[in-house]
UniProtKB/TrEMBL annotation:
The keyword Zinc-finger does not apply. It comes from Solanum pennellii (Tomato). It is a multi-pass membrane protein. The gene is LOC107011810. This is Cationic amino acid transporter 5. Residues 517-566 form the Cationic amino acid transporter C-terminal domain.
Amino acid sequence: MTVTDSTDEMGDEIQPRSYWRWSKHDFFPGDSFQNWSAYRSALSQTFTRLKDRVANRSDDADEIVELRKESENEMKRCLSWWDLTWFGFGSVIGAGIFVLTGQEAHEHAGPAIVLSYVASGISAMLSVFCYTEFAVEIPVAGGSFAYIRVELGDFAAFITAGNIILGSIAGSAAVARAWTSYFTTLLNRHPNSLRIHTNLIDGYNLLDPIAVAILAITSIIAISSTRRTSYFNWIASAVNMVVISFVIIAGLAHANTSNLTPFVPHGPKGIFVAAAIVYFAYGGFDNIATMAKETKNPSKDIPLGLLGSMSIITVIYCLMALSLSMMQKYTDIDPNAAYSVAFQRVGMKWAKYLVALGALKGMTTVLLAGAIGQARYATHIARVHMIPPWFSLVHPKTGTPINATLLIRVASACIAFFSSLDVLASLLSISGLLISMMMAVALLVRRYYVRGITPQTNLLKLTFFLLVIIVSSVGTSAYWGLDPNGWLGYTVTVPLWFLATLAISVLLPQDRTPKVWGVPLVPWFPSLSVAINVFLMGSLGAQAFIRFGICTIVMLIYYIFFGLHATYDMAHQRKKPTTSRILEEDMGSARA
């Protein structure tokens, strides 16, 4: 479907607009941006409009049908559950396991890094349950952004959108930086030997042109065709799985159980600090949900692809972490290229090249699958005008969102050129954990509140119980941060969480039942997901929250000056006949 542009007096067919265009309306849509006077008027109504956006919620039909028209052309349905499963492997297994495992085992968890992966894996699997139900019910490119917009409203969706874009940009940059480290290992050189050394402040002083180049190459492949990217992902992921199998088997063959002592050198706090960081290693599963519109049979393919791939990945991560911890003492683990160096030190020098090659393959597929999923997030965010609608356009020939891909990848390249992996990882984890927590809340709202059906008293009860769950989870996390060895505070926060969840289960009926696939044990699983995600967020250091706070302030400034007014205009203008619709109706009348 294409948006029409003009017609002649003789009634010729309306011509499609060019994909490559740069009009003011494509970047500054709506009445608020027609001129400076209109913009000043819009700013004067900021508070009123903000109240409108906070209260506004979308609906399933709007996300699935109406918003899709903003892209003018359709994405192609070409993926099966098999494609999605391999996209799951490709999206997730990359820099996290190959780089963060060594970094966090060395600095925080020691051999107990295995338990860190278990903790973050449980959190990720609970989130996967929520994503799966939503993706089956609302199969759109917007993923968590669309789901939260339907259940929690427009403003909550903006917070999600900001964190999605932040996570997409920083995530791609982090993986690209890690790619350079493993590439230099393959060349038998120091990880920083191919970076340009400067006098900038620490963490930003090693410039990385190779990271920029790999981002550009994977973006070109992803832009060309979703199906072609899927074929490439199959091959690369299969090679990566062979290498992973080798790492696990060879690592355990050279295991020394004495390396597991002390198992928890930094105490439980070290385990959970590492768990919060390595949660980034599970990031990427949400990309599968964004491919729902390109899936042949979403109700069957998405549960198989999401749950199947993530279950296998969780087991793989734990086994890989165990093999590393048993090969080397945690104090001797190289935080930059842990597996390659570990094999070298146990006498398998040749193996480090195989591991480096596998890591490069893994990180390449992460960048490829990430380019697919991240661009689809940005496309749907642009469809509601939270970012300029130019980024929502789908190319008529390739069936891919080229503009949205460029938005994410150009910004990623700029950050990858300057920022080190450790600067990016903690910021990524906060964004991912916050979105997962909001997804769990959104699922509870979806099950227990339906507009026009749920009584007002039940809505008030649900709101109260959800607040108690969130506050008690924050309290548990805060108490853990203040006194890791204490227990008294948990006697208040944990029972509060339990009683609030029990109250939802006993006192409130579920007003919506999933049509095809649903999260089991509701409200317990989503409530537990809230608690674990908040707890892991609280385990991150103060520096991570400072960076996150700065990014959030920047997002809110952007929203107040652009996003709020663009989305307000769109929501209210869609209630009126659009120019193209009037034109088409006039044409139909003329022909009649």
